[in-house]
What we know:
By secondary structure, the protein is an alpha+beta fold. It is built from 2 helices and 10 strands. It starts with a strand and ends with a helix.
Amino acid sequence: MAETFQFELVSPERLLVSEPVEQVxxxxxxxxxxxxxxxxxxxxxxxxxxxEVFRTEGxxxxxxxxxxxxxxxxARTLTVLAERAQPLGEVDRAALEAEFRAAEQSARDARDDDxxxxxxARVTGLSGLLDSLR
Length: 134
């Protein structure tokens, strides 16, 4: 049996996970990051994507969709504070696609460079999230 660490995943709506796990893969801003017990301390921003939670060695991961936030790795903990999070099975793909189209429209309608950059970043994030759901 692999060593475990405490994992907590919190969104503004609820605490989704709070338990010992063997491994978690988070969608870091620079790429996916695999966390095991004993990982070096780290704080990273999250991009929209999927967190994979491995509770037992060789078991199938639970997949949870996150839409931004950040992750903090401590000596024996991983805490994820997500802007939005929900189990993969609860995701409304049609709503995400509508949000993507609205973000594209916001980028086209932006009145200044800052607004355009924020809207384009949202388009990119939602595009990546939709791709990961395919």
